């Protein structure tokens, strides 16, 4: 009889917890699925703790009357599954996972939804496979579950089970956090990438940690300590102390400045031919006329296009805070290219063929020092290509606008047509014969960038006719890479040997004042942060009194051991590339930049610490809004060695 009673009690418990058992079992399958999709290894401890989070949330269903139990369980399932879904889509484009900070950009969802859904692989729907099963379970097993729920052994067993789950979760979470801090002490503070934190904490603990950090930042306004301010001032004093003018300093003084930020323009298209056809004939022509930098690296992060603008105009690194600086630090004051030129008597103007609210540009461009800006709302209607007004019509309007601007002027023009997913170019403009590439993502990109190149070429010709071409410094660069998967790059014979190898965007600078320097290819490594110091150098604006972290590209002192640093702590030098894993130099890959082969790590630690310090200095400036204090000289520099 006792045996039968035991079986009956176990049966009652299983019936009462069948929804719990089903969902934990399904999440035991979903969690590894998620890690495979985002190409990450799943640690056994992280796996167990992730399932304990699921179990703990499901246990809480007992706090609700049985009639509300289904709604609660369904909500938990949908929230946890949707997190995986969103992270997977975000990862497919940004190669990272999302953050609550990105909710500030929720207004952008409608605009980018077309681009997002091209990235949504059908397998992502597997995250929701249990929803219909759950509905069927509650539809047909409600009576048995309710009966068991009221069984004699329910209360005692449930309490013991819940206490055990909570204990294991608390113990396991504490153990995992301590293990993570022992393994990677700087990971949670420096947050080199969201993915690295998720790798160590697990998907659900990562998002809880992310929420904690977000709330903590909101409640505690970050203020740099006197020692940190001193570090920043000392670092800039050391860097600016190295600055000496060379032959090209001020060579273009008094000329206008026209900077064109080209959407998704990646360096591999320069001089690329497909079936004998030049993909970017006009850009290639500009490369032959100006100074071309083929090793100009994309230094953007979560903010993508807005990061392309920020790094280029402000010469600071993207923030470690997920999301766009244009949203997260809108209250800050910045040193910038437009502000520097404004002080030199320049008229400052910016324009983009999309809404001024997108990326918060209408606010931020004024903060950066643009006296006048034109966005979609103030441009004339015209042909639509991709997201909005075609580059061709945009540049036509800009040609007329530039003629009206008081000189000298600085015009910052942002193109739009060559935007992901690259498949909205009208058939009439698809003039390339691509053969087998037709219909592929790479084929779409080549058609799109070819159209953008035609529009750029027409604009340059109009500048030549108006005389602005030879009375201006013209800089053209890509805002960020195109986000093309390796499989698409392989279609045209590009097979990256290591990460970052092809993460380059073109930069071309032309000025009639450069003389024989024009028509040359400069192989030095560089990145977005170097644009502002380089342009100011040509225009004769000294570095003293400015807080730009990039380095000039002209008259570079011999023996300069330059680093191009990325937000995750990786960096490249002229001969080496260092790929950081989880912020630890010991676990990084030290490679020959040309061959991609692993090389001796001698000097890697010192160089990596210097790279991380660059990021720290930039973060201090951003998170503590230090530019006003630095410019006003409210913190004295003590006599100490600059931080390495």
UniProtKB/TrEMBL annotation:
Recorded metabolic or biological pathway in which this protein acts: Cell wall biogenesis; lipoteichoic acid biosynthesis
Domain Sulfatase N-terminal: 255-541
CDD domains per record: LTA_synthase (cd16015)
Entry protein name: LTA synthase family protein
Chief localisation class: membrane
GO cellular component term of the entry, any: plasma membrane
Transmembrane portions of the chain: 44-64, 71-93, 124-140, 160-177
Family, similarity comment: Belongs to the LTA synthase family.
Residues the record lists as binding Mn(2+): 263, 305, 479-480
Entry's localization field: Cell membrane
Catalytic center residues: 305
Mode of membrane association: Multi-pass membrane protein
Record's keyword terms, sorted: Cell membrane, Manganese, Membrane, Metal-binding, Transmembrane, Transmembrane helix
UniProt keyword Cytoplasm present: no
GO molecular function: metal ion binding
Top-level taxon of the source organism: Bacteria
Residues annotated as binding substrate: 419
């Amino acid at each position: 009889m006792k045996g039968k009673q035991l079986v009956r009690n176990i049966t009652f418990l299983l019936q009462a917890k069948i929804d719990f058992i089903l969902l934990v079992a399904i999440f035991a399958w979903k969690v590894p699925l998620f890690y495979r999709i985002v190409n990450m290894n799943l640690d056994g401890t992280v796996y167990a703790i992730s399932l304990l989070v699921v179990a703990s949330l499901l246990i809480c269903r007992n706090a609700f009357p049985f009639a509300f139990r289904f709604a609660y369980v369904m909500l938990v399932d949908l929230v946890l599954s949707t997190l995986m879904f969103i992270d997977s889509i975000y990862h497919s484009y940004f190669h990272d996972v999302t953050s609550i900070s990105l909710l500030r950009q929720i207004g952008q969802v409608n605009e980018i939804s077309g681009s997002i859904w091209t990235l949504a692989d059908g397998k992502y729907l597997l995250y929701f496979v249990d929803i219909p099963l759950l509905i069927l379970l509650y539809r047909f097993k409600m009576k048995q579950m309710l009966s068991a729920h009221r069984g004699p052994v329910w209360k005692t067993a449930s309490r013991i089970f819940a206490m055990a789950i909570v204990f294991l979760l608390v113990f396991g979470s504490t153990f995992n956090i301590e293990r993570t801090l022992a393994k990677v002490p700087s990971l949670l503070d420096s947050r080199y990438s969201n993915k690295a934190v998720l790798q160590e904490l697990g998907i659900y603990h990562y998002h809880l940690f992310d929420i904690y950090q977000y709330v903590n930042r909101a409640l505690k306004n970050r203020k740099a300590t006197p020692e940190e301010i001193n570090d920043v001032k000392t670092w800039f004093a050391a860097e600016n102390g190295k600055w000496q003018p060379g032959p090209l300093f001020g060579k273009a003084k008094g000329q206008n400045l026209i900077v064109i930020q080209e959407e998704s323009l990646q360096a591999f298209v320069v001089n690329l031919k497909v079936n004998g056809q030049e993909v970017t004939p006009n850009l290639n022509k500009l490369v032959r006329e100006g100074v071309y930098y083929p090793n100009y690296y994309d230094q953007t992060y979560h903010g993508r296009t807005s990061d392309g603008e920020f790094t280029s105009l402000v010469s600071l690194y993207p923030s470690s805070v997920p999301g766009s600086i244009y949203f997260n630090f809108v209250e800050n004051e910045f040193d910038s290219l437009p502000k520097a030129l404004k002080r030199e008597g320049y008229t400052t103007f910016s324009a983009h063929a999309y809404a001024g609210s997108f990326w918060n540009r209408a606010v931020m461009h004024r903060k950066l020092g643009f006296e006048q800006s034109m966005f979609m709302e103030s441009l004339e209607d015209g042909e639509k290509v991709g997201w909005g007004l075609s580059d061709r019509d945009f540049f036509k309007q800009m040609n007329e606008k530039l003629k009206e601007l008081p000189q000298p002027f600085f015009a910052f023009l942002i193109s739009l047509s060559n935007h992901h997913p690259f498949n909205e170019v009208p058939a009439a403009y698809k003039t390339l014969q691509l053969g087998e590439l037709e219909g592929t993502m790479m084929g779409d990109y080549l058609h799109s960038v070819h159209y953008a190149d035609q529009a750029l070429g027409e604009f340059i010709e109009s500048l030549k006719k108006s005389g602005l071409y030879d009375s201006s410094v013209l800089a053209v660069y890509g805002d960020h890479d195109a986000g093309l998967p390796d499989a698409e790059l392989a279609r045209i014979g590009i097979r990256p040997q290591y990460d970052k190898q092809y993460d380059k965007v073109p930069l071309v600078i032309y000025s009639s004042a450069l003389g024989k320097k024009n028509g040359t290819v400069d192989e030095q490594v560089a990145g977005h942060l170097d644009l502002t110091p380089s342009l100011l150098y040509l225009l004769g604006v000294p570095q003293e009194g400015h807080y730009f972290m990039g380095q000039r590209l002209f008259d570079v002192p011999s023996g300069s051991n330059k680093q191009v640093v990325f937000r995750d702590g990786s960096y490249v030098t002229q001969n080496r590339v260092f790929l950081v894993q989880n912020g630890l130099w010991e676990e990084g890959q030290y490679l020959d930049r040309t061959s991609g082969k692993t090389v001796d790590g001698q000097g890697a630690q010192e160089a990596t610490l210097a790279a991380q310090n660059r990021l720290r200095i930039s973060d201090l400036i951003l998170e503590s809004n230090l530019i006003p204090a630095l410019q006003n000289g409210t913190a004295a520099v003590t006599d100490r060695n600059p931080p390495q």
